[in-house]
Structure formats: structure tokens, C-alpha cells
Amino acid sequence: MNRYIYLLLLLLSFALFAQASQTYVGDKSCIECHSKESHEWKGSHHDEAMMIADKNSVKGDFNNTTFNYNGIITTFFKKGDKFMVNTDSEDGSLKDYEISYTFGVYPLQQYMIKFPKGHIQVMDIAWDSRSRADGGQRWYHIHGDDNIIAGDVLHWTGQNLNWNYMCADCHSTNLKKNYDKQSKSYKTTWDIINVSCEACHGPASKHITWSKDQKVDMIDKGFPISLKHKVGKKGNNKEIEVCAKCHSRRTQLDDNFVAGDRFDEHYLATTLSEGLYFADGKIQDEVYVYDSFLQSKMYEEGVTCSDCHNPHTLKRKAEGDKVCFQCHTQKQYASTVHHKHKNKSTGASCIGCHMPARTYMGVDSRNDHSFRVPRPDISLEIKEIPNACNLCHKDKDARWSSDAMKKWYKETPKGKQNFAHSLNALRTQDISAPKELYSVLMSNAPDIAKATVASYLGNYPSKQTYTTILQALRRSDPQMRRAGLQALESFPPNMRMQKTFEMLSDDSKIVRMESARQLSAFPLGALSKEQKKTITKAFDEYEDILLFTAERPESQLSLGSFYTNRKMFKKAEKAFKEALSLQPQFVPAYVNYSEFLMKRGRTKEAFNILSKGIKTIPNIGILHHALGLWYVRNKESKKAIVELKKAVELDKNNARFAYVYAISLGGQDPKKAIAILEDAYTTHKADISIVSGLVYYYKQIGDIKRTVKYEKKLKKLEDSMFFRLSNH
Questions:
Q1: Rounded to 5 degrees, what angle do the CA atoms 681, 684, 687 make?
Q2: Phi/psi of residue 143, each to 5°?
Q3: What is the number of other CB atoms lying within 10 angstroms of the CB of residue 350?
Q4: What angle is formed at CA 333 by the lines to CA 330 and CA 335, rounded to 5 degrees?
């Protein structure tokens, strides 16, 4: 081996060893040299992210106060030095519990209670920490007027308020979840109870060594990352990824993240998914900040979190809009020429217009960080999308706001995030969707928007989309490569096998795991020794990711599918059963488990699973649809029609349900089938199956005029969607 290569490998191994041997030392070790930063951090939201419940940390009123939630009376009281609550338990009965920890501090504080087997649950009745003048200093329920009762996953004793899985990773330093799937217990540990110095800077033991002898040559003074240096546009991504660990809507893949690591090696961030983001990219559900910021011009220009926020106090670096004037000229942008409102009014605020807020957890107002131009014209066309103008002018409508914008600026200002119509077309399966998809991919839209639309490519298989997908697989953005893989899954096996296998060696875990998931369903045939090694490694990694969250029904469902694909049927069935055991209301598990049983020839058991699902959660369309298909397969057509009809009634927006129901009636009564399909067509004009069904049944009854009408629509639809696989 070349001596220089040998030395390089030796140095690399030493660097990796140094990284691996670093340990957490605690914030007390930092104070001596970093008193200013420690003083700023003390009392911050990071410092108070989680605390032992005592007289200094608890903000709520525990002086025998009561709170009435839909007839359930909860009492907060003290027993000596202990803070106690009497509230509804897992079975709905009232029980006394001791508060072990506080969670957060402002604008609300929640309280945590220890349960057997290491489970810790977060109460859904929270203390409003705001001032009385702002409506605070009261107990309130985070679910508002919803009636959440014992047994519901959203009940405080349920899975979705379990601290170990849902919250712990972001509120403590060097937290290890340590879930044991056999005993269904946790042995969760942390080095520091709150978000301390090393949560962001990484373990400091090597830095302490360096600080005692600064002549020692250590990269970044012994830390695994430097948060000072920025490099060009989209500058210090490492800093942003440190923040993204917690300030993002994401799936956790393991708990091994250390500051400086690649975010996508430990977390799978959401894209601009329906239900989480409005079609224009603005925040809808509680998604935190990361994917919003990735949409912004500021991100592309290299702005990072610490440009606007003091990383130790977490406060803005300047009050109000002054933080914007660090970069944007106050004379230009604080002028009525720009904002068209009276100075010092709400409408003159940079933050109010360009970072519109939504309220989460009942009282927590959070600003959108995509820094966008107000677009009332979009709200005019897509009514469910809010806009900054009408958040203030509640007495006016989007037409009024849109007209005002045009009058002021002589045109409709569009800004960078100009993909609302395209993403909405894809979500609604509009006939224009394929064209709109390409309009985003070919534009200067943010990468996160392009990755979002790229996942829809598989809905429109053609030579063109296949070529586009192959291009996506070569992009530098791992989210784009992952989206490309997801789209590729719609193509025949011979068109995707090789590419999917190649992606097993991708440098991003989120891409490798998607590739492994898909390949588990392939008959792999004869493999070379090296290929076997590659695929075994990928399968093991994917299984480890799913087992990391083995306490979740979603993970057990994925394990069930993974094991089924690999013909590990005993493990698969165990996973399906575990999913239902963990969450009896988890609908997909009933559907997938019943399908698994059907394919094993266990028809009666499949029926029993679907029946149990309907008994547990009766008004879910997909369960009735699945039971209807079970009756079809078992030649019980009358019972099938009843269930298929019920599915349509429960989910009127599902084109597939309407089509299958129409087909079930069409053999006996084509006119009834036509009535169902015509009704579905009003909201699914771009659905191939609905339109082709209308062509078929109108032809059957001899209605030539309407047959020709829908044949033309079908031809236009197929042409616009590049739909025919003969194009391959």
C-alpha cells in the first residue's frame, strides 16, 4: 500500500477513534470558561425544557384547584413536598398520581407522570403560563373542545402522549430511549435532564482536554463540530442540522445523533405533505421550523438560525422587526412605499406579513419560517389556504386583499414559493397535474418543493417520467433521491430492479432504507457474494430502523410487510398482531393483516380480523371496503354490495371505493353503476377508472352520445397524463 494512503487511513482511524471516545461532561464543566454563555442559557427554554418537579420548577396552581373537562373533574393538589393530581386513568376511573417532571415552561407547561415498566406519560391538561392579561394563569386542555377519553391514542395515558417515544429525544441531552420489545418496557437514560451545552456542541470531554493544554492540535478545539464557520450559500448546514434534530417534523431512525452528524443519517424529515403543509408550503399542522426554512430565499443565501436567534438565550437578536434590519435596509423596507400600511401598525410589520403565525397546543403562537410574500390571490383560488392579509383583515375576503395588492404593486407579487397551484393539482389529481408537476421541477422552486412533487411522478408512468425519475436518483439532495425511488416503485420490476439495487449503496440512510423496503418484495434470484453482502447489510439496517420504534403500531405494520416479503411468515404474523395489540384503533393493521391471512388461505380468520376492526372502529370506509372485497372473493355478492356501499357513504372522496361499488352493481344494473360513477365524476374528473367506467356502462346501455362524450374525455385524460404504459 502507498505509504501516504496508509498514513491518511491511519489519521482517519485516529480521528474516528477520537470521535467515538468523546464523552459528555455536563454543563457545570462549561461555566468556568464560558460564564457569559452559561449565564445567557440559564433560564432559557432549553435550560427549562425538562426539570424535576419541585417548588422552583412547577408553575401551575396545585392549591386544590380543579379543572372540568367534559364532565371529568381533575384536581391538582400537594401532599407534603409532592405535587399531585387526581385525574382519569387508563380505564377512565379517577386516580391519584405524583408529578415527576415538568415539561417546558412558556407559553405552557406540561407535567409528566411515571408509569410501570419505565413508561412516562405527559398530561394533556396543561398550565397556561402566560399572564392573566393575555388569558393565561389557568389550567386548560390541549385538545380543546374534542372529547378525548380513556382508550383513545390521544388520551394522556395513550401512545401519542408517551414521553419516551414522542418527546424525550428533544428535551434532554444524550438521551437513549432503550425500549425492550420483549418486555415492552423502557430503560430511558440521559446525561443531562435538559437541553444543555453539549446537546448542540457535542460531547465536550476532548474539548476539556484541549482547554488544559491548548498547544495540543485538535480539530475544532476538541469538539465534533464548529458552529462558527460558514461557507458560501446554503452556508453552515451543520448548524441548521443541529437545530433540525429537534426543530423539525421528522421520524427518528435511531438515537445516536451527535452534533456534526448528517441529519439524514438519523432522521427522516417530512416533505410538504398534505395535512402538514398547505399546498403553498405554509405551515398547517405542528411541523416546527426546518422544512419551512428550507423553502426560503434566506436559507439559499446562507442565513442560519443563529443569524436571527441568540443560540443561548434563544431570543431574537433584536426586538421585533429590528432583527430583519440586520440585513434588510430599514429605510427601504420600513417605508410605507414598501408595506403600504401606517407606520407602526400591524400591517407594517415584517414578521406579521412575511412570517404569519398559527397557534398550536392551544396557546402557542408560532411563526412560519418560509419568509414568503403574502398571496391573497392564492386564497382566492384555493380557499382552504390562508393568507397574511386576511389574518388581520378578518372582515374582508381574499378578493378584497388580492385587489389591494394588485392596485398597490401594479401586479400580483409572487415571490419564490410559487408552487401552490401545482401541488394542489397533484393532491386533487387534477387533469393538469402532470404538466404542473414538471412546471415545479423545471422552475427555481425550493429543493424541498421539488422533492415533494417528484414523489408524484409514479402516478403518471411514461418514458418521460421514467427518464425524469432516473435524473432525480442522481440529484445531490437525498430527499429528491428518496422521492425518485418512491416514484420508481410504480414501474414494472424489470425497469427498476437494477436502479433500486444500486441505491442500496447510497450515502444517505433515508435513501438506503427506502431501497431496502422495496427490494424486500423482489424475487432476487442468483446473487454474487458481494451482492448478497450488500443486500444483507441493507436489510439488517432497515430492520434495525423499524425495531428502534418497535413500540409503535406503524413500525410493526412495516415489519409485518417486510417479513412477509422475505417469506418470514411467523415473524410477519407476530408483527401484525403486535400492531393491533399496541393500538386496537390502528386501521391499516386490520386491512394488511387480513390480506396476509387471505394469501395464506386462512379465509375465515381474515374475515374475523375485518369484523373485529369494524366492531372496534365502525365508521371507517376502508374496513367496510375490505370486507366487501372479502365477500366478493367468497362469492357473497349481496353482502358485498352492502359493505361496498357503506364504504362509499363513509368516504365520499375516495374514487376507488366509488368505482368498485359501481362495478359490483354494474353486472345487474348498469344504470345504477352509471349514477354512482357520475356522482364520483363531479369530484374526480381526472380519475382514469371513473371515466373509463362511464365509457363502458354507457356503451352497454346503448347511449352513443354519452359514450362518445366520455371517450373523448378519456382520450384527453390519457394523453395529458402520459398514461399508456405502451410508451415504455
A1: 100
A2: -95, 10
A3: 20
A4: 95
CB under 8 Å to 17, separation ≥6 — which residues? none
Per-residue pLDDT band for 8 (boundaries 50, 70, 90) equals very low
pLDDT tens digits, residue range 48-101? 999 999 999 999 999 999 999 999 999 999 999 999 999 999 999 999 999 999
Take residue 273 and report the three cell numbers written for it. 405533505
406's CB contacts (< 8 A; 6+ apart) are: 412
C-alpha cell at 9: 487511513
- In DSSP notation, 69-126 reads ETTEEEEEEEETTEEEEEEE-TTS-EEEEE--EEE--SSEEEEEEE-GGG-EEE-SEE
Retrieve residue 466's grid coordinates. 421514467
3-state SS string for 384-447: CCCCHHHHHCCCCCHHHHHHHHHHHHCCCCCCCCCCHHHHHHHHCCCCCHHHHHHHHHCCCCCH
As a whole number of angstroms, the distance between CA 445 and CA 296 comes to 10
Inter-residue contact 186 to 164 (CB < 8 Å): yes
Distance CA 723, CA 673 (A): 25
Per-residue pLDDT at 17: 44
**Alpha-carbon gap, residue 510 to 478, rounded angstroms:** 7
Determine the angle formed by the axes of helices 621-633 and 603-616, rounding to 10 degrees: 160
Give CA–CA dist 49/26, Å, rounded: 16
pTM for this entry: 0.92
Distance (Å, rounded) from C-alpha 657 to C-alpha 624?
10
Most distant CA pair in the chain, distance: 93
Any idea where the domains of the chain sit in the sequence? 48-194, 228-372
How far apart CA 84 and CA 284 sit, in angstroms, is 35
Helix residue ranges per DSSP H, 167-273: 168-171, 197-201, 205-212, 237-244
Confidence of residue 3 (pLDDT cuts 50, 70, 90): low
Contacts of 452 (CB under 8 A, 6+ apart): 271, 272, 273, 423, 483
Please give the pLDDT value at position 724: 40
Q: Are the C-beta atoms of residues 227 and 306 closer than 8 Å to each other?
A: yes
Q: Are 44 and 195 in contact (CB under 8 A)?
A: no
Q: How far apart are CA 120 and CA 98, in angstroms?
A: 12
In this prediction, residue 107 carries a pLDDT of 97
Question: pLDDT tens digits, residue range 641-676?
Answer: 999 999 999 998 899 999 999 999 998 999 999 999
- pLDDT per residue over 371-419, tens digit each? 999 999 999 999 999 999 999 999 999 999 999 999 999 998 888 899 9
Whether the Cβ atoms of residue 126 and residue 142 lie closer than 8 Å to each other: yes
Q: How far apart are CA 162 and CA 247, in angstroms?
A: 19
Rg of the chain over Cα atoms, rounded to whole angstroms, equals 28
C-alpha distances in angstroms, 290 versus 226, 293, 691? 20, 5, 41
Kind and range of the H or E run holding 559: helix 553-565
Count CB neighbours of 664 within 10 A: 22
